[in-house]
Amino acid sequence: MKEVVVVVGAGFIGQAIARRVGAGKRLVLANLTEQASTEAADALANAGFDVSASALDISSRPSVEAFVQKAQALGPITGLVHAAGVSPSQAPIEAILKVDLYGTALVLELFGEVMARGGSGVVISSQSGHRLPALTPEQDRLLATTPTEALLTLDMLQPGEVKDTLHAYQLSKRGNSLRVMAEAVRWGKRGARINTISPGIIITPLARDELSGPRGAGYRRMIEACAVGRAGTPDEVGNVAALLMGPDGTFITGSDILMDGGVTAAYKFGVLAPGAA
After folding, report:
1. CA nearest 181: which of 236, 125, 127, 132?
2. 2 is catalytic
3. Which position among 173, 189, 267, 268 bears the catalytic label?
4. Across the chain, which distance is largest between two alpha carbons, in Å?
5. Interior CA angle at 202 toward 199 and 204, to 5°?
6. Is 169 a catalytic residue?
7. Which residues are bridge partners to 6 per DSSP?
8. Out of 25, 98, 169, 267, which one is annotated catalytic?
9. pLDDT one-digit tens code per residue, 142-158
């Protein structure tokens, strides 16, 4: 029976990672709609991969539970790629928190209960989480360890506390990296590893929505001001994921890899820093 690699959010980044880590394994793809999953599966099947597709709502516990059972039935789960989410221009505050924060915690919880020994996973977070001002140690702890079903009841996530959709997104992405750090302890007891990647602007349909949306000018400014001077590609994220999930990354778990072309550095010490000329 083949090893199973699950890809939750099989968009451009999810597919790029799947191509790097899925050879010789059974890929199980999931998007919100059956059509999106089938289109992604067809693209990979045409490239020679063994792949199946499912619809999945990561904001629904019954949906994720059913998907985990389906994946388990296909073989030992040795890989998880979690790349699903919505951006600040795509959804209201409540939906961002439900999908990006709660949904990620749910996927980590349930797959963490079935991951095979020697397995590994990556969660796609965002540079945006690195630009959120420091939270208190207690807030960090709560985002990392609050039981999944109580996560959205935290005082810091209530109406009036979250200023706008960008703030909701930043909180969610900071929460993702903190959650993965805590989950790495639990996954380690099964002999499995889990890490986050925090990409900058990677050209995908989601990024194009942002570039053409109300924050488009700011995004273009970030690209122009960063040290690399360009946006990234899904395949570059795939390269980092392959390292983290493969044999060369076996000493890495509970970590977050920031890959943003130097945008965060520019916000701290460059032309994007507060007060910079």
Report:
1. 125
2. no
3. 173
4. 60
5. 130
6. yes
7. 28, 80
8. 169
9. 999 999 999 999 999 99
